[in-house]
Amino acid sequence: MVSAARESLKRLEQPKLALAQLHWSTANYQPFQERALWEGIADVYDKGLCDAVGVSNYGPNQLQKISKYMKEERNVPLATAQIQYSLMTYGVGKEMNSVCADENIRLISYSPLCLGLLTCKYDLDNLPRAGNPRRQLFRELLPGAKTLLSTLKVMSDELDKSPSQVAINWCLCKGTVPIPGARTLKQAEENLGAVGWKLSDDMVDELDRAAFAVGKPMIQNIFQTK
């Protein structure tokens, strides 16, 4: 892993990485490899090749394990944990908020718009085009998300914001660093409209309730651990 980090630095033409993250845990399919990954990323830090280390797709239990290892055996601060986090996954997300707060780890939320479902542009009569893998997924998720999407629409109208901006701002209000995707400049500009303002506490609470009421949450990444 150290040699891979050095090669990355050569390609980037940088002296040091700001953050080195393990993309996923092997606990679900090759548990005996897990310790080697922890040791490898800690070595990258010890060699001075990065300012901080983090993980991705670690659930709360596995996150606590690696955090303990880093602190007690390597004296390496674990800075970030990146997971799929949105109003459609708040059941898992809330527990991660708690663990990250206890371990002093910053939570990075990827897919904060749930693959576009939280843009409120889709319904059962307007699904992604045929052949798009999101089509069947949205067909399954939309019925149980009616209350949540309705709440987003009402809130966005009241605030003169888009549903996407409200959904991303909710992630910010939860103390996470959302990293929404954007395929076009227009989408990127819309995403930027999620910053510079803040949902009220009452609005956050209302969205929390709507999130917990979702009938079928978004499926987790297959590499996401418990």
Walk me through this protein's architecture.
The chain has 226 residues and is of the alpha/beta class. Helix content is 47%, strand content 10%. A five-stranded parallel sheet has the order 1-2-3-4-5. The longest helix has 15 residues, at 60-74. The relative contact order is 0.14. The model has no long low-confidence stretch (mean pLDDT 93).
Q: Key features?
A:
226 residues, alpha/beta, five-stranded parallel β-sheet, 9 helices, 47% helix, elongated
What is the ordering of alpha helices and beta strands?
HEHEHEHEHHHEHH
Q: What fraction of residues sit in β-strands?
A: 5-15%
Percentage of helical residues? 40-55%
> What's the tally of helices?
9
Number of β-strand runs: 5
Mean pLDDT comes to 93
| Radius of gyration, taken over Cα atoms and rounded to an integer in Å | 19 Å
Profile the largest sheet: 5 strands, parallel
Q: Describe the strand arrangement of the main beta sheet, using strand numbers.
A: 1-2-3-4-5
What characteristic shape results from the CA principal axes?
A: elongated
Low-confidence stretches: none
Query: Which structural class matches the secondary elements?
Result: alpha/beta
Give the terminus-to-terminus CA distance: 25 Å
